[in-house]
Amino acid sequence: MKFFINKVDQIVNEAIDGLLTNPNLVKLDSFPEVRVVLRKDWDKSKVAVISGGGSGHEPAHAGFVGKGMLTAAVCGDIFASPSVDAVLSAILATAGSKGCLLIIKNYTGDRLNFGLAAEQARALGLQVEIVTVDDDIALGTDVKRRGLAGTLFVHKIAGHLAEEGKSLQEIVEAAQHVIDNTISIGLSLTECQHLGQEPTMRLNDNEVELGLGIHGEPGIEVIPYAQADKLMELVVDKLAQHLPEKNGKYAMIFNNMGSVSPIEMNLLLNSFRKTHLADKVEYVVGPAALMSSINMSGFSVSLLALNNDFERALITPVNLATWQIQTFSKPNVVPHPMLPKTIPYEASSNSRVQQFIECIAELLILSEAEINKLDIQVGDGDAGSTFAIAGRRLLSSIHALPLNEPEKLLSSIGRILSRETGGSSGVLLSILFTAAGNEFSTLQDMGQALLQGLKKMNAYGGAQVGDRTMVDALQPAFEALAQQKDLQEVAKQARKGADGTKNITKTKFGRSAYLSEAVLKSVPDPGAEIVARIFERIAAL
Q1: Chain-centre distance of CA 3, in angstroms?
Q2: This prediction's pTM
Q3: Active site includes 61?
Q4: How far apart are CA 203 and CA 192, in angstroms?
Q5: Choice among 57, 61, 160, 215 that is catalytic
Q6: 374-419: per-residue pLDDT in tens?
Q7: What is the phi/psi pair of residue 468, to 5°?
Q8: Could you tell me what percentage of the chain is helix, strand and coil, using 3-state DSSP and rounding each to the nearest 5?
Q9: Under a CB-based contact definition with an 8 Å cutoff, are residues 102 and 50 in contact?
Q10: 17: part of which helix (H) or strand (E)?
């Protein structure tokens, strides 16, 4: 397939510079390492509203930066969450005394990276709150729901309230109310095709996918291809099962997922007009590409149950690049804010603690191939490499660490993991250690502090004991540590938890939820396994 590109690795950067011909927008001068687009006129006098995520969904998210909507957008690679540092940069660049709101969609990478950045910003004294949009009703209500184009309702209403000068708490409550009253579902005739890559095909000419996300992942079901009216009826029937207000009035976002022609989008809107939900809709946004999936030939419908406040916020005019002609100009930049040092503390010595860390780091490095081999069976095969990177970074930083100050040591380990370790595991553990460091100053107990850090990690990551993750080994080990058990008993509990994951074959969370019982049976979770090995190695010292 042919695409309009120059270099594959510059697609996102060049697209952002194209957007920045809008003179009302600027980018941080650390671009492209940090991709943050923000309002040129921002003066930090009001609550900042920040959103973002992977690129490939244009015009979301940067196309909605402007007065009355987003203050800034953080742009990752295509379909990949932006880094913790990028999110933190956006917060530091925009948040004033009234704080900021982060609006994210319910995907693991966004929850982790935006969540950790929020924790770091709070540690710097800033007010930061997060709302997570989960408007996709394709899978029902028994699983973690994804965020789709309904996120734009949250952008508009939160941005409107921020422009009016409302407080952070008022905006958070309103945004959550929007989320609770928004539903969405998507349908597509084709898969999306990544720019510059070989095309992928999983549907034939007689198949359509219903209930799909925005990252090219498969729909919840494959259905026969049919006329537009029939396909729209199927979408509407799904939405009707989850209406927030059975007798209420709604606003609708009719979203083009990338490559549906304008004439087809208008035809589909006419198909919606024929359905039993049409009389409930007071306003429509679109049809337009608003939150696309690169070039997918599909659409999504989002409905928001209206009240007077929502209606007033939605219809208030805004000046945005997504639907207004503006002067063509070169990209502008503003200075990048200074990020805190990875280890902002003076080094201190403690031979026993140093021995523990060196021992753990060496274990992580030596276990790389074995844990990768284990992860190939139940994941993407890189868990061992992720942990090994953490081990190498800890070893290289050992003499710069505040080894004799537990609170600062925990926080420093958290910072190292957030900036130097990839994958969800690195960010999750960073959240754990960062939060544990914050808690230790009050609790003065390592086991209790680690337990509190684990609770914070669970809140962002979503996993609990029984979900077949490293939590299955971490929680019993930390509980034993908090109960003043000796290290042999702590290790015993971690091993019991890790071995127990071999028998967990059904979960509603994480990657295991997508694998069969036959694949999972008798195979331990790689994260839980490495946790158990760490405690066993420590206990043997």
Answers
A1: 28
A2: 0.77
A3: no
A4: 11
A5: 215
A6: 888 877 778 889 899 999 999 999 999 999 999 999 999 999 988 8
A7: 65, 60
A8: 45, 15, 40
A9: yes
A10: helix 11-19
